[in-house]
Specification:
single chain, alpha+beta, five-stranded antiparallel beta sheet, three-stranded antiparallel beta sheet, 15% helix, elongated
């Protein structure tokens, strides 16, 4: 190819490159958007009417014999403005001696939704948890704002508890939790 052919090919490429880059169009449109309303809510789980810690004195007992139990009602209330899922997240027991540990291991926790809680669970009451006291937990239910659920908490000393447990003492800490419904 001669010098004229190279110059002509270069001019064609220059013309094509120049026109391709300059023929773009910009399109634009506008629309109104209603973003809606964003509101906040609050969660407040009240155990026995207390927002922080509740001393469960009605569940205390001295001289619990093997095979015997003690029961007490506990009201959980949603003091917030949003619906929540409540649950028993954990039960921890305080032990410092071998006898304390044996006692804690021999205790059974039973949680029902029996509002009367008189020691005789009606057939209509649901058992939410039954098992060892230490580590007791259950996934709860929905609790609407300003509503409450009455639980019956029963602690029983197993009939086959070791004799060494008779010298033990323990204190149980029940940790309830409320989570936002999504």
């Amino acid at each position: 190819m001669g010098k004229i052919g190279i110059a002509a090919a270069g001019a064609v490429l220059l013309v094509v490159a120049g026109t391709a880059g300059g023929t773009g169009a910009l399109w634009q449109d506008n629309a109104a958007l209603n973003p809606g309303t964003v509101t906040t809510g609050s969660l407040e789980l009240l155990a026995g009417g207390s927002p922080e810690s509740y001393v469960f004195t009605t569940l205390s007992t001295d001289n619990l014999a093997p095979g015997a139990s003690v029961s007490a009602p506990l009201a959980l209330r949603n003091g917030g403005t949003a619906e929540m899922l409540y649950q028993l997240a954990d039960v921890a027991t305080a032990t410092s001696t071998t006898a304390d540990s044996l006692l804690a291991a021999a205790l059974t926790l039973i949680v029902t939704d029996d509002p009367v809680c008189n020691g005789t669970t009606p057939a209509s009451a649901a058992t939410l948890y039954q098992g060892p006291l230490t580590g007791g937990a259950f996934a709860g239910s929905r609790l609407a704002p300003s509503s409450a659920v009455d639980l019956c908490i029963t602690v029983a000393l197993n009939a086959d508890a070791p004799i060494e447990a008779a010298q033990g003492t323990t204190a149980a800490t029940f940790t309830f939790r409320g989570d936002q419904v999504q």
